[in-house]
Write a structure and sequence with these properties.
Elements (H helix, E strand, L loop, with lengths): L5 H13 L14 H10 L6 H8 L3 H4 L7 H8 L1 H9 L10 H17 L3 H25 L11 H15 L7 H21 L2
Helix pairs in contact: 1-3, 2-3, 2-8, 3-6, 3-8, 5-6, 6-8, 7-9, 8-9, 8-10, 9-10
């Protein structure tokens, strides 16, 4: 694990303030738990402070108003590399909760992560999806099929997205095999839920 530093402490404080009052879908868990988990997962594969901070900030451009914390703030406080990683793993900000908007955002993300060759960006993406899938599996153990009601689209489309991201990253150079193996294992568990519902 990376060593604690004043820069890292500042990043944790910034992320906590930026996501203040936000909660994970369908729960009372403060949202900051997600970027913290993603940041910790990345360090299993590569110990890097910039990547840890970018993981902490990976949802800020999507979910936090720019007057609270913006691209310029990230650049000024933490540098170009952190900003570049965050931009690589951010969806466009389309505030229309309909299927067309969801599909457009996801296709943009898939194309963007397919075209990046920055291992740090790819590892943040992998860690984000690993945590999201793990949370679905955890919630499924108590909520069953009701877990899918937390999302804007149906189960099949959510799983499709995780599969497409996996296809985009699995053959990228410079990515530790353990990261790919972990993603594949959790994706397989998620797909079992889909098969189970039709069994």
């Amino acid at each position: 694990m990376i060593h604690f530093s004043s820069r890292l402490n500042h990043a944790i404080r910034v992320a906590s303030r930026a996501h203040e009052g936000q909660f994970r879908k369908g729960s009372d868990t403060p949202y900051i738990a997600h970027p913290m988990a993603v940041a910790m997962i990345t360090q299993q594969y590569l110990e890097d402070e910039d990547m840890f901070i970018a993981a902490l900030f990976h949802d800020i451009l999507e979910d936090v108003p720019k007057w609270t914390y913006s691209r310029d703030n990230i650049r000024e406080d933490f540098g170009e590399e952190v900003l570049a990683i965050v931009e690589d793993v951010s969806e466009p900000n389309i505030n229309i909760p309909v299927l067309a908007a969801w599909t457009e955002r996801k296709n943009y993300y898939i194309e963007h992560i397919s075209n990046t060759n920055n291992p740090k960006s790819i590892l943040v993406s992998i860690a984000d999806k690993i945590h999201n899938m793990s949370e679905i599996l955890n919630d499924y153990s108590t909520k069953g099929e009701d877990v899918w009601q937390n999302f804007h689209v149906d189960k099949g489309r959510e799983i499709w997205f995780f599969e497409e991201v996996f296809k985009a990253v699995k053959n990228k150079e410079g990515i530790p095999s353990q990261a790919i193996d972990d993603y594949a294992r959790i994706l397989a568990q998620l797909k079992e839920l889909d098969d189970r519902s039709y069994g």
